[in-house]
Amino acid sequence: MKKLALIAAVLLLAACSNDIQNTEAVRQGVVDYLQQRTADTGLDVNSLVVTVSTVSFEKDVARATVAFSPKSAPGVTGMSMNYVLDRKGDKWVVKGRQINPGTPHGAEQMPPGHPTTGPGR
Fold it and tell me: Contact, 16 vs 22, CB < 8 A?
């Protein structure tokens, strides 16, 4: 009887560990994506506060708005980006960014006070 209860508990824990439809799992997928691209971007994701503002789940796809702000400047408004992630096993993997309609050339909206980059840039 104890052996059966132990097996049931292990199966229950295994099933619970696969539930990745939560903001922390999505956040980790975005952080992993950014860390993999550090050599290309020069971005140190460890210097940022990364927060999932909104997320929606559709079967094996997650759509998330993720906010970034510098750890070195608390209270400073950063920027946000929209990501589409695919479920790969027990992880979320960034498929790409979702561009906001109405922004020129797919540009993301910059935070208030950010210097302009000039027309057409």
Answer: no
